[in-house]
Amino acid sequence: ARSELAFEGLDTFAEVFLNDEKVLDADNAFRTWRIPVQGRLREGSNELRVVLRSPIRRLLPGVQAMPHRIAGNYPSPYGDEPKDAMTANFARKPGYHYGWDWGPRYVTAGIWRAVRLTSWDVARVQDLQVRQDHVAGDVAELTAIPTVDVARPGRYRVRVWQTSPDGRRTLASERELALSPGIGWVPLSFRIRHPQRWYPVGYGAQPLYAFAAELAQGGKVVDTRSVRTGLRSVELRRERDAAGRSFAFVVNGIPVFAKGANSIPFDMFPSRVTPAQLRRVLQSAVDANMNMVRSWGGGYYESDAFYDIADELGLLVWQDFMFGGGMQPAYDPGFRANVVAEAEDQVRRLRNHPSIVLWCGNNEEEIAWKYWGHGKALKDADPAFAARVWDGYVQLFDRDLRRVVAEEAGGIAYWPSSPSDDMAEAANTPASGDMHYWEVWGNPARPPSAYLDVTPRFMSEYGLQAWPVRRTIDRVIGRDEQRIDSPLVEAHQKFLAGKGNERLLHYIRMEFGEPRDFDDFVYLSQVMQAEGIGLAARHHRASRPHTMGSLYWQLNDVWPGASWSGVDWFGRWKALQFHARRFFAPVAVSALRKDGRTTVSAVSDRTVPRRGEWRLRVMDLRGRVLRDERKAIEVAPLSSRQLAAYDDADLLAGADPARTVAVF
Q1: 526 near 131, Cβ under 8 Å?
Q2: Which end of the chain has the smaller Cβ count within 10 Å, N or C?
Q3: Which of 353, 361, 341 is nearest to 130 (CA)?
Q4: Nearest Cα residue to 210 out of 354, 410, 412
């Protein structure tokens, strides 16, 4: 008989004792730790003890002993570690626990996911991958690959059952073979004629098939494991063109313009997050006409429920590996091996989800090294160590993780960093690859109209902050404390680098002038955020097919504070989320004014042509209509079409610009 103890989440440095015998030294919050415990269990009661260590105390001496440090992320404002010796990027633990510019600092320790004891005396199905070798309208060619762990050798029959979306159960494939003790793989290939294909939301339905692998010996079923998946083809299309190289997700042959936002953890403490909370926020994304979320790398790999809900809703997921910033000690082979084991665990856990369309190595680490000064400073201080650091980075993010995805992810593309151009010399460029654009909001704090100056292949981050609605603020800050400069308001504003509330005021004043009071400040922060992000998103959509994605920062929150989110911690919508429903609508009008000239385009994500009309009205602020024109239009499928362009003088025909609006 065999017994296995599995820890699905230990945060992070933990020693595990079974009946006073040490059975595990854990050092990675993202790994599943499997411990064979046969022969170590007693009849009756057994004692399992987990001793947790402070990650800061464990790592700080080593970091302080380094003659030259690698870049950390956010220095602690609390003195729990020195500002010049940050430990977060040496620990395989959620980066946001160490504080971020939208959340507090809680450097936790604990048991954060399930602990399971499994015993078997014949064999078990440990895992089941359903690999989609080829999926088209006429046929889906699939390979089911059960991972079996055999205790008793002998002849086994392996069957794969298929349950179609309408509930019909049929035998898809079977094999009889001899299995020896230990872990092995049993691939079974089969076909589904005229499969019901899974589509992103807005492009078709989300039918889901269930597959079960059944292991039998001597006519008796000894174990089964089932998974659910949607059948679809997916590619990251990177074609060379006059500008550089495209960056577009193609699902079932349809180039999908990615509309959405970046998701961060749904709470400071993952164990508090409920499936209902996940569903509420992901449904909010769909309700605002989004079709993609980027699950960002400074948190943790989300729960199974997150991906199950994304599968059901048709939300595509860009999945980062959990590296949020700074620089990793990837020059250490032990660190790299630990990360590879983590990546194998997570890719195997998540690879059957049709929603996952990309695995990405990290967030902003390539551009930080190349452009933010740390790489140059380290090269100047210690060229040999700097070369080791960068070589380690290339080994981990260009080779090791790429290999894991190629071997384990069933054909999903890998991307080494966001933003990147797949390890080309220049990164974060509009010509090729994906972009993050922070010159609006971040330094030099350009006006939102600067979004119109940047036309990327795929914009994976851009953002403006706002406070949540007053009802949310009232839950955490008393009315008597609700002033821009009160200590409690400051404590809930984590953008310390740019004095967040002052930065917010800068943008409010730029658009609307001085707010009268705190209520006005909160409201105008939301209007400014909604209009600014809407301007960028409409520009990205109008730039199709050069641009094929617009993911703003950020969808959700870890707590109730000021942030870049459109949905606050309680699930309440800011103005941005309501505006997204319009600027991400399947068919939308984009009217963009730059340097006294307005360009009007119609954009469509529909796969069939649409007929209608577009209308221009010029009105004064008393509601008097100065001009009213309508024109018939046909919009081609999956397109952006320029309808008209006007100089201010054409549009206004002598009306006072300070009292006049143009409505398209």
Answers
A1: no
A2: N
A3: 353
A4: 354
- Tell me the three state secondary structure of residue 231: strand
Share of the chain above pLDDT 70, in %: 100
Mean pLDDT of the chain, nearest integer: 97
- What is the pLDDT, as a whole number, of residue 18? 98
User: Which residues have CB under 8 Å from 387's CB, separation 6+?
Assistant: none
Amino acid at 536: A
Q: Is the Cβ–Cβ distance between 506 and 543 less than 8 Å?
A: no
SS3 of 578-621: the string is HHHHHHCCCEEEEEEEECCEEEEEEEECCCCCEEEEEEEEEEEC
Other CB atoms within a 10 A radius of the CB of residue 230 amount to: 24
pLDDT band at 497 (very low <50, low <70, confident <90, very high): confident
**Burial group, residue 304, by CB count within 10 angstroms (0-12, 13-18, 19+):** exposed
The single-letter DSSP state of residue 399 is: I
The answer to whether 73 and 324 have CB atoms below 8 angstroms apart is yes
- What is the reported pLDDT for 111? 98
Q: How many residues does the chain have?
A: 664
Interhelix angle for 383-394 vs 374-381, to 10°? 130
Tokens of 233: 């083809």
User: In angstroms, what CA-CA distances link 146 with 76, 160, 208, 210, 455?
Assistant: 46, 9, 19, 14, 45
Q: Using an 8 Å Cβ cutoff, are 193 and 138 in contact?
A: yes
pLDDT in tens, 19-60: 999 999 999 999 999 999 999 999 999 999 999 999 999 999
Partners of 176 in the β-ladder: 157
Q: Give CA angle at 456 (372, 615), nearest 5°.
A: 140
pLDDT tens sequence across 268-327: 999 999 999 999 999 999 999 999 999 999 999 999 999 999 999 999 999 999 999 999
Cβ-based neighbours of 126, under 8 Å, separated by 6 or more: 147, 148, 149, 183, 225
* Selection from 169, 168, 178, 171 nearest residue 148 by Cα: 178
Can you read off the two tokens belonging to residue 19?
A: 């009946």
- Cα–chain-centroid distance for residue 588? 25
As a whole number of angstroms, the distance between CA 608 and CA 592 comes to 25
Distance CA 215, CA 223 (A): 5
- The whole-number pLDDT of residue 1 equals 87
Please choose, from the candidates 35, 15, 10, 33, the residue with its C-alpha nearest in 3D space to the C-alpha of residue 25. 15
CB atoms within 10 A of CB 160: 24
d(CA 80, CA 95): 16
Rounded to an integer, what distance in angstroms lies between the CA atom of residue 435 and that of residue 419? 5
Q: Which of 529, 516, 530 is nearest to 465 (CA)?
A: 529
Active-site annotation, residues: 364
Measured CA to CA, the distance from residue 330 to residue 90 in angstroms comes to 9
Give the model's confidence band at 167: pLDDT under 50 very low, under 70 low, under 90 confident, else very high. Answer: very high
> Could you read off the pLDDT of 500-554 as tens digits, one per residue?
999 999 999 999 999 999 999 999 999 999 999 999 999 999 999 999 999 999 9
Task: Give dist(CA 508, CA 528) in Å, integer.
Answer: 6
Question: Rounded to 10 degrees, what is the CA torsion of 310, 315, 320, 321?
Answer: 20
Residue 544 has a pLDDT of: 98
The whole-number pLDDT of residue 498 equals: 78
Strands 316-320 and 292-295: parallel
Q: What are 639's two structure tokens? A: 């397109």
